[in-house]
Input
Amino acid sequence: MSSRERILGRVRRALADVPGDEPSYEEAVGRDYLREHGDRSVEETVDLLAENLADYRAIVHRCTADDLAATLAGMLAARGARTVLVPPGLDPGWLAATDAERVADTAGSTPYELDRVDSVVTACAVAVAETGTIVLDGSPDQGRRRITLVPDHHICVVRVPDQVVSSVPQVMERLDPARPLTWISGPSATSDIELDRVEGVHGPRTLEVILVG
Output
């Protein structure tokens, strides 16, 4: 008997006394929980996102669409970034004001090559105000998942208010579960048993978010 057959046999025995008309899990579990906590305006929702991003130690910037290129150039210059990793679908106008060398997101890039990149700039799929979370789904303006996990500095552009929702239930309605989703709540960090925080363990040590409205 294979391991698979053994496991399925245990499942069948466990379900042997369950009535045939028993409601399914989807029917039995209530879904009447709150879709969001509190009644906020669009501006208040964006403010809450900025507050929670900062609470997670992300660096938050705000600018208009016309000022985005200059804002990005200033951030890269302040970082001393000489190279910037660029997803294939990123709007080229975003980086029009920077002199940093563009590095393409290619399938052949090794982790060592990605680690030598100074910064990466991406868009996002959606952002969640109540949790301060940014979600990437691998779209062309976000690139492969690894480009936001290996370089030490990630700049993520969020279009407000179109890409901002209040809660996790709302964000789930906008995402395709078949896509490679990356959920980001602040820079990569972990804590040991003594609660000493270490950043940059399994992702960028520095996360900067630009809220473009």
User: Anything to note?
Assistant: The mean pLDDT is 91. The first helix runs from residue 3 to 14. The CA atoms of residues 137 and 177 lie 9 Å apart. The chain has one domain: 40-212.
